[in-house]
Design goal:
The chain has a domain of 66 residues. Helix 1 runs parallel beside helix 3 and helix 2 packs antiparallel against helix 3. The chain is 84% helix and 0% strand. By secondary structure, the chain is mostly helical. The longest helix has 34 residues.
Length: 95
């Protein structure tokens, strides 16, 4: 039962990452996105994945962790793209 509950928690979080990525992609700005927040969440997922290996508790939930981490990587890439777009827009505004 603990595994199912852990997976449900991860699925709830996991649904939000693709939604967040889509909204950030459409916004085309990094305004309102916190790199520190993304870093903390990334660290949390890395720790969760590491715990699976350290505790020798590798099961299907690891796949949910990995999916979430990949969705978070997409958020990082979009954040970096949006920062570049913001910088480009700022340079154009100065001319």
């Amino acid at each position: 039962m603990a595994t199912v509950l852990e997976a449900l928690m991860l699925i709830c979080f996991g649904i939000s990452w693709p939604v967040n990525a889509w909204k950030a992609w459409q916004a085309r700005t990094a305004a309102g996105t916190s790199a520190a927040f993304l870093a903390l969440i990334t660290l949390g997922y890395v720790c969760g994945i590491s715990a699976k290996f350290v505790g020798h508790n590798i099961n299907w939930v690891l796949g949910v962790y990995i999916f979430n981490l990949l969705a978070l990587v997409a958020n990082w890439l979009i954040y970096l793209r949006n920062r570049a777009l913001d910088a480009q827009a700022q340079r154009k505004g100065r001319r």
